[in-house]
Design goal:
With 608 residues, the protein is α/β, with parallel strands linked by helices. 29% of the residues lie in helices and 20% in strands. The chain has 18 helices and 22 strands.
Length: 608
């Protein structure tokens, strides 16, 4: 028995010596030479989650002592266990708290006690987030939110209707409140809106019912210093635009409106009286009609042109799938992929409102950079009219296209050269809207793939024939007519170069009776002026023939070579041509293009 006691004592002594040696070893680390004040600043900057503070205390004694003495590290208590929550609150020493509560079926009795303890600190809570998932809180828990919250600055409540039906949130006393986000609010109850006063940020997401015009005006008038506004399906219904009195919001910087239709987004903008152009982001769930599109863009244009705001300098159009497209615009000369842009619009293509109809409203007439990413060519064979609005973009100097947009973008550049190719009606006759292109050098079948990696020599010969300037051809030029449907009139759109009055055009292609007769290239060229005449830099990338959905029988390299050669001949030579990972454009093709451009960058396509 005595031997066992001696062994235990010896073990404790050895453990103490080990701890002492570890402390001395940690003290030799360079970071240990930092003053405690500076080390505290590092901890506060790096610990974004509650678990990070616990990890710091397990490194060494010095770090633990420093971390425990920083109240700000413990302002976001863990709510998984009651004892853990108590320790966090004790170490916070009265600092403003950041509380996040999630109610779901997995909540244990211990966790519910921890949640109630955290909500009891309402007079010390600065940030509060409440998420109701699969279990509703009981009345005993909700009553803790019916007390004043003097320090509360930011509140986000998911399924807020559950709370506002039972209690008056924070007893209406929130003098420091700046940011409010309510998801699934019920305007019919009318409770909880009294705290929406003097805000800087307001987000109302998918309310259970739409507010009335007076309720929306009251909300906006209560926060004249508003800087950020996010409204999701909150536009009042049943009112004429002429009946709306705009609310002055001179400090508003960001506006997001999500609605089913674009006309609803535009109606919401009428409620806002702005002194400068905000960052504007619009999103729609359903396609718009042609008439609504015209009226909507008149309102959107008025917001984008507030106080003589300069035009956007760069833009990007992205195909999102399922007929959805996103237009983004920046005030900077180049596209900033790290930001959302100063303007963005998620819209839907439909039979009544085609891509060509949308493109004529793009707010990019002054842009210098344009990017197309996997866009438009998905449907352009049934919507050739989308090419025409690009005639307005005379200031474009940088053009980039990626994925399936590459083929269509090259054909946009060669639109004035279309007499070199032939539009052919579908095999089923003129009723079929599908249009395919045929090369004057050779026409492949509709179901045949374009060139593969194994056909380098064929493509090189084809390109060589093209460069020799052979004028022979086996296809006649089509007769291209334009059918237009006028919706309304607008001198503003006429002056901006858009198709007037919301008119949309679809190119109708008709073959002449004698298919063997060839039209004059010079006449066709005169009818179709060169698009983007000031273009200096062209980039095409990530184009894969195996995933391209378009049925094209004109090879990409053929059209690209013809466009580059034509620009060089017209004294509008490209300064830079970048071809990155485009299947079908091989090194021999790139070498031949080199003499027609200033600088050429070529990256081979990845092998499958």
């Amino acid at each position: 028995m005595l031997d066992f006691a001696r062994d235990r004592e010896e073990q404790r002594r050895v453990d103490q010596e080990i701890r002492t040696l570890n402390s001395r070893r940690s003290a030799l680390a360079p970071i240990s030479s930092l003053p405690t004040e500076l080390l505290s600043m590092v901890f506060e900057a790096c610990c974004f989650e509650s678990g990070g503070a616990i990890t710091i205390t397990h490194v060494c004694h010095h770090w633990r002592a420093t971390a425990v003495g920083i109240p700000g590290l413990w302002r976001s208590p863990l709510l998984s266990r009651l004892e853990c929550t108590k320790e966090f609150i004790r170490r916070a020493k009265g600092a403003p708290l950041d509380i996040t509560v999630t109610f779901d079926d997995s909540d244990t009795a211990d966790k519910m006690q921890a949640i109630e303890l955290a909500l009891d600190q309402l007079d010390h809570i600065e940030v509060l987030r409440l998420y109701v998932r699969t279990r509703r809180p009981d009345m005993h828990t909700m009553e803790r939110l019916a007390k004043p919250a003097p320090l509360l600055k930011d509140v986000e409540i998911y399924n807020v209707n559950i709370f506002t039906r039972k209690i008056a949130l924070f007893d209406g006393v929130t003098p420091a409140l700046e940011c409010v986000a309510f998801i699934y609010y019920n305007f019919a109850h009318g409770r909880g809106l009294n705290i929406i006063q003097n805000l800087k940020t307001l987000a109302l997401v998918q309310p259970m019912d739409r507010p009335s015009k007076d309720e929306m005006v009251s909300l906006l008038e209560g926060s004249p210093l508003l800087e950020f506004l996010d409204l999701d399906q909150c536009t009042p219904a049943g009112y004429n635009i002429s009946d709306i009195t705009p609310v002055p919001l001179h400090y508003l910087q960001d506006v997001e409106v999500h609605e089913k239709l674009l006309i609803q987004c535009a109606t919401m903008l009428v409620f806002l009286k702005l002194s400068k152009r905000p960052r504007l982001h619009l999103s729609t769930l359903l396609p718009s009609s042609a008439s609504d599109l015209h009226v909507s863009w008149q309102i959107i244009d008025s917001v984008l042109a507030i106080d003589g705001a300069p035009p956007f300098k760069s833009g990007k159009v992205v195909w999102e799938g399922l007929d959805r497209f996103t237009i983004s615009a920046w005030s900077t000369p180049d596209v900033d992929h790290a930001t959302r842009g100063d303007f963005s619009l998620l819209f839907h293509r439909s039979t009544q409102c085609t891509v060509s109809h949308w493109c004529q409203y793009l707010p990019l007439s002054g842009a210098k950079t344009l990017e197309l990413d996997g866009v438009i060519s998905m449907y352009s064979s049934k919507d050739l009219g989308w090419l025409m609005p690009f005639k307005r973009f005379q200031s474009i100097t940088v053009l980039r296209a990626s994925r399936v947009a590459v083929q269509e973008m090259i054909e946009v550049l060669g639109a004035h050269l279309m007499h070199e190719w032939d539009y052919m009606e579908g095999e089923d006759g003129p009723e079929e809207e599908e249009v395919r292109y045929g090369s004057r050098v050779g026409c492949r079948g509709a179901n045949e793939s374009d060139e593969d990696d194994e056909t380098d020599s064929e493509d090189a010969e084809e390109l060589s024939d093209l460069e020799e300037g052979s004028s022979s051809g086996s296809f006649s030029a089509p007769v291209v007519t334009t059918s237009s449907r006028s919706i309304a009139s607008s001198s503003r759109l006429e002056s901006s170069g858009r198709t007037p009055a919301g008119t949309f055009s679809v190119l109708q292609v008709h073959l002449p009776p004698a298919a063997q007769k060839k039209s004059s290239p010079s006449n066709n060229s005169a009818q179709r002026p060169m698009l983007f005449p000031n273009l200096l830099e062209l980039t095409v990338e990530r184009y894969d023939l195996r995933t391209n959905v378009m049925r094209r029988s004109v090879s990409l390299v053929t059209v690209l070579a013809r466009v580059v050669e034509d620009r060089a001949t017209s004294m509008k030579c490209l300064d830079t041509l970048c071809i990155k990972r485009c299947s079908g454009v091989m090194k021999p093709h790139a070498d031949r293009l080199q003499k027609h451009v200033g600088t050429l960058c070529w990256t081979p396509a990845k092998k499958q």
